[in-house]
Amino acid sequence: MSLRITELNGPASIQDQGRFGHRHLGVGWQGPMDRLAFESANWLCGNPLPAAAIELGPGALSLEFHQRGFVAYCGPAHQGILARAGGEAPLYAGYRHQVSAGDRLTLRPTGEGLYGYLAIRGGIALPELLASSSCDPALDRESLPFRPLRKGDRLPISPQTAALPTAAALGIRRYRTHLNFLPAPKTDARRLRVRVSSSLSRMGVRLESGPPWPELASQPRPVFPGAIQLPADGQPIILTRGCQTTGGYPVIGYVVQPDLDDLAQALPGCRLTLSPCTLEEALRAGRRFQGYRYLIKRGLYGDGP
C-alpha cells in the first residue's frame, strides 16, 4: 500500500517513537509531541511500536490512498472527511476506518488542539537513521523521512500480518492544564500560573508568567524535553520533543514526561498551572501513565498482545 500527499498547509512530518541515546552527539530525541495519541493511532491499526506515522501540526492535509487498508487518526486537533466513490463520510478521531484505492482523506483544524496522528496499518516504510525514522530538520538531510513532509510526497506502507485489535474505537481523552515539574537544585520551587504564548513549535513553548522571574546565575545543566529554561526576559520556555541538546539559559526545573503530552495540545492563550513535585511524585506520575497506557491497549486487544 502507498499514499500520496495532495495538499498540505501547515507543518507535518514522519515520527516514530524517537531517536534515543545520541544526545552526546548533538542528536535530539524527536518523536511525537503527543506520545499517547501517536501510540493509540498505531494500536488501532494493529501496528507494533515503533511504527512510523504522520504527525500533523496546526494546518490542513489531504492525501490519496493507492491501495486498500486501514487507517486511524488520534488527537484533538483535526477533523477528517473521507471522500470515496459513494460520496463523503466523516473520519472520526479515535476510530479505525477502512480505505480503498482512490479514496481521499482531508484533515482540517478543529481549533481544539495542535497535533494529531494518522497511522496506516503496516506503518510508513521509510529509511532509518540511528534506529529511527523520525523527522529531524537538524540532521540537514533533504530526503524523507528526515525532512518535513511536502505536497506531492509519496509514502510507502509496510505489509502487515499481525491481527487487528478486537475493538475499533477508543474513548475520548481529556487533556489537563495542570502540569507537574521537578525543581532544579537551588531554585525557587514555587507554583507557576502561566499562559501559553503564540511562540511555540516542536522545539519549545514560550510562556507568559506575568512579573518576570528574578535573574538567575547561568549554571550549565542538562537540557532535554521538559526542561524549563529562563531566558533574560524572565519568561519561561519549556523545551519539547524537538529541542536542541545543549542550552545556555538557566534551568529552573523539568516537567514530568507524561505531562508533555498535555502541554503539546495547549493552544496559545491557554492558562496552565505548573506545580513543583518531588522525585517520588514524579515517579508515581510515570507509573500512572504506564498503567493508563496498559488499560488503553488492553481495551483494544483484550487478552491479546
UniProtKB/TrEMBL annotation:
Protein name, please?
A: Biotin-dependent carboxyltransferase family protein
Gene3D superfamilies per UniProt: Cyclophilin-like
Q: Which residues form the Carboxyltransferase domain?
A: 24-289
The source organism is: Ferrimonas sediminicola
Record SUPFAM superfamilies: Cyclophilin-like
Q: Which UniProt keywords apply?
A: ATP-binding, Hydrolase, Nucleotide-binding, Transferase
One Pfam family name is CT_A_B
SMART domains listed in its UniProt record:
AHS2 (SM00797)
Q: Which GO terms describe its molecular function?
A: ATP binding; hydrolase activity; transferase activity
